[in-house]
Amino acid sequence: MSFKYKIAPLCLFLALGLNAQQELMQHSLTDLWHSTSLNPALFPEGKRLALGLPAFSLDAAHSGDLTYNDLLRKKGDRTVIDLSQAISRLDPENEAYFDQRTETVSLGLRSPGGKWAFQIGHAIQLNGQINYPKSLAEVLWNGNAPYIGETLQIGPQVDIFDWQELYFGVSRQIGRFSLGARVKYLMGVSALRSDADHQVMSIYTDPDIYQLTLTTDYAFYSSSIISAIDTAGLGFDFVTGSFGKSPSVDNPGVAFDLGFEARLSDNLSVNAAVLNLGGRITWKKDAQYYISQNAYTYEGVDFPGTDLINGTDSLDFEGKLDTLNDIFQFAKQAQQFETTLPVRVVAGATFKLSERWHLGLNASYTDLEGRSSTAVGASLRWLPLRWLSLGAMYGANSRSAANFGFHLAVKPGPVQVYLLSDNLLNAFSLKSSPAVNLKLGAALVF
Question: Any idea which fold 7-445 has?
Answer without folding.
Answer: Porin (2.40.160)
